Predict the 3D structure of the following.
Amino acid sequence: MSIEDRAKATAKDVEGKVQEGAGKVTGSREGQAKGKAKQAESDVRHGVEDAKDNVKQAID
């Protein structure tokens, strides 16, 4: 996994946590849901990149 891709996925996770927290503070369920969705997207990105790393290691 490239460092750039890992950083983007981590940034998306942080963005989601902030948005979810802001949604909780303001009582916005929509904000909370969008924040959780961004965190889930980050998890998927990390999973895809981990799979790429595993394939690359298997080939090498």
